[in-house]
Amino acid sequence: QPITTDMATLTREVKKFAMDKKMEIETLKVREEYRREFLGNVSHELKTPLFTVQGYLLTLLDGAMNDKNIRKKYLERAEKGVERLIFIVQDLDMISKLESGDLNLNLSKFNIVELVQNVFDLLEMKAEEKNILLSFDRKYLRPIRVFGDQEKIQQVLVNLIVNSIKYGKVNGSTEVGIESLTDNKIIVRIKDDGEGIEPQYIPRLFERFFRVDKSGARAEGGSGLGLSIVKHIIEAHDEKIYIESEFGKGSEFSFTIEKAE
Ligand code: ADP
């Protein structure tokens, strides 16, 4: 750095230095706030299932254990609570890796049609609970090869289809469609005829822990992290995700992905 003798330049540089420091401090403050909020959210999310499990176990110890039927029922419920905790911790693990940029994409060419069908098989039972029909346009019987991280794209499909079931109506349907967007991109659409989302919430959907209906969503057993994981994965691929939704009618989430050939 050259030594500055000119007073005006010196003043300017001192001011700039002070501004830079101020901005640095602001950034640190925002980060600190973010961390505090994150920790608060995490402990809040963990508390509900933990107390549920504890409640069932305490009741069992308190004598409910002696009744064979109650014992089975309460143990099953406690197990559900533990399952829920495992899902939350897995989501947290995923989000922390995605946000720290620690997660390398394992890129390969794969058939997205087959992947969608595998995800349907995986979620068939969950859909049956609400008698929701999972459908896939028949014209996609031929393979469509894409380029991406297969495991992560599977996670995207699972999260979006699980949501379409969770927020879908009984006897409703979820339809997956794939279309060519440009010569080298395709778009995958996941469309449901469920409850839909009010427009004012749409910009916040991808925020961590954001839920439209806190109590309702909690009853459905999500962590509020599903969509933010989806967004991170799609952005890590340099691709885009879109939402279209009409309150009371249904929603459509779609994302782009690169064609392999
Ligand atoms: P959650 O674990 O709560 O499902 P997500 O991040 O996956 O968390 O979704 C955030 C919120 O977005 C949900 O709580 C719900 O309010 C809303 N949402 C997501 N998908 C849909 C959908 N297909 N239809 C209606 N609302 C949805």
Automatic annotation (TrEMBL):
The keyword Transferase applies. It catalyses: ATP + protein L-histidine = ADP + protein N-phospho-L-histidine. The keyword Transmembrane helix applies. GO terms for cellular component: plasma membrane. Residues 41-261 form the Histidine kinase domain. One of its GO terms (molecular function) is phosphorelay sensor kinase activity. It is an enzyme of class 2 (transferase). Coiled coil: none annotated. Keywords: Kinase, Membrane, Phosphoprotein, Transferase, Transmembrane, Transmembrane helix, Two-component regulatory system. Its EC number is 2.7.13.3. GO terms for biological process: cellular response to phosphate starvation. This is histidine kinase.
